[in-house]
Amino acid sequence: GPGQAEMYAGLQELGVANGEDLKETLTNCTEPLKAIEQFQTENGVLLPSLQYALPFLDLHGTPRLEFHQSVFDELREKLLERVSAIALEGKVEERYKKLEDLLEKSFSLVKMPSIQPVVMCVMKHLPKVPEKKLKLVMADKDLYKACAVEVKRQIWQDNQALFGDEVSPLLKQYILEKENILFSNDISFLQNFFSPSPKTRRQGEVVQKLTQMIGKNVKLYDMVLQFLRTLFLRTRNVHYCTLRAELLMSLHDLEISEICTVDPCHKFTWCLDACIREKFVDNKRARELQGFLDGVKKGQEQVLGDLSMILCDPFAINTLALSTIRHLQDLVGQDTLPRESPDLLLLLRMLSLGQGAWDMIDSQVFKEPKMEAELITRFLPLLMSFVVDDHTFTVDQKLPSEEKGPISYPSTIPEAFTKFLQENRIACEIGLYYILHITKQRNKNAFLRLLPALVETFSDLAFSDIFLHLLTGNLTLLSDDFALEEFCTSLFDGFFLTACSRKENVHRHVLRLLLHLHHKVAPAKLESLQKALEPTKQSGEALKELHSQLSEKLELRKPSPPQVPEPPSMELPLPTVPTPASR
């Protein structure tokens, strides 16, 4: 067929006879058998000792093809070993000259399946495959597929669109994996989205594949970063920021200095990575991080765009926010004001740089966002007063009854707190982490007191997937309170259900929580929730699936209707009526 002809076409260029030549010889000869013998002699393996061995193999019924094939396989293995050896020996120019000559000779046979591995091997070892050959490979789907990644890198670096096609499905997969973790049906306060260590996360399939595709190629690394920036701008999805940091640290793990030394964020990311591992920014690392931020020189402000993206990674924000809450508690104990703590101010500075990433990259105005004085002079002292309230209440509860004042837990929230959560992004982020903190401490009073402030927050942060994922996990610690009408009304009617109809993700998180804790909720409340959480026609598949899982669980929980004993049969045997005789 035409495929065969194309496959062996290269042989003639090399002066090697092929099937076409044999056909021609046989068509134009008088004694076919003699012609075949001559063709075999001319084109067989030229070893004098074989002259006697071949007839011996014929006697044993070994086809010549089989023999030639095994000789060929043997030679190919030797050749592949030799190519790999050439790539390592002698002077650089000489070894590449040898390989280029070999490529010139063999490239015309690249379509022959038996020869292809050799051609591919030669190209793989050439740091610069001639442009013309790369174009031929690129134009042929099968050849492109068969290429080693070393060759593909040379093609990609001048073809951003083609590289984009290869990278795009991996980025989609990455975002999906993150979302699957956030919506996972396993809810626990022990294991959550932030549990895996940075090292473990970098072993993920997508990061590993991208690392492999980039190799040591700075141009490809820059392209991937450009894709991530563009996608982050287009979608505001912060998981792209995580991938930005993971990719750099994956190259760091492999000690790829060609890339790490040219990425101006390398040392900052490395230091922050250690903080994320500990889930805390200690004083020594805080100084180091501050040094990097203060060291941004005039004319190099653009690096702030990259640093802000690194700080916008949810794993970084989580670490900075947890550290902030810890610092505030320490300050209460030391009777110190927030503005007197340089460590706390640095955490806020990094939080606002991270939270400002999108605006900075979008506007291309590279300067650190201004910190609002009120955040430090009013909002943080407010949070500290909540810590004091809790402390006072707890101490009072422990007093012997005759000394107890008629103290009840403060139930109102200062209006300023609610306003801060609505209008200030950093205040909102820290406020949400404070609420996660009190939930984790099983502090039901404080939780119910602050919950109303979450209904309206800055850009709906309290209804974001990461916060709801963490909140549902921590709420499992208050599972016994789900039996209380007042608790459920505050949590479901007062918070979750205010957003379910307009935000499908919130709807999903509530269903996740109920799937986990339905057995703790009072039956009447559960029934009204099940109705309130009915999916609509427009709801996504995942939501419908969750609701039907919940309904199934609730069916199983319903007590079976009481068995009413059947009344004894009152039937008397009927008298037999004779059938009319057929006439």
TrEMBL record:
It comes from the Eukaryota. Residues 559-583 have a biased composition (Pro residues). This is NELFB factor. Residues 550-583 are annotated as: Disordered. The lineage of its organism: Eukaryota, Metazoa, Chordata, Craniata, Vertebrata. One of its GO terms (cellular component) is NELF complex. GO terms for biological process: negative regulation of transcription elongation by RNA polymerase II. It holds the Pfam family COBRA1.
